């Protein structure tokens, strides 16, 4: 019997539903229920992904002079998805949307080559 999973469930709920269905069928799940984050220092990262991180780090450092900068490849090393945190004085007094637009303009080429980006921006604490 094949059962279609509900698309309205949040991702975590869908993964739990897949794991439960696999357990009932006594088959191992096809995917991991626990998400993993791969950092740029992991051995699994490809040279291209590390080079892309270095380019993004250089561009953001040059344009924003950040007091905090974090770039994480969360795609398993292929460079398709990133988490980024940028803290810069240039963001002070600007709306969050304006801050994100500033970063998007600087990284336009790199973002066009990605599948996804989670971006957090903020001015430094006083």
UniProtKB/TrEMBL annotation:
A GO cellular component annotation in the UniProt record: mitochondrial matrix
Protein name per UniProt: BolA protein
PANTHER family: BOLA-LIKE PROTEIN 3
Organism this protein belongs to: Nannochloropsis salina CCMP1776
Domain of life where this protein originates: Eukaryota
Family the UniProt entry places it in: Belongs to the BolA/IbaG family.
Segments crossing the lipid bilayer: none
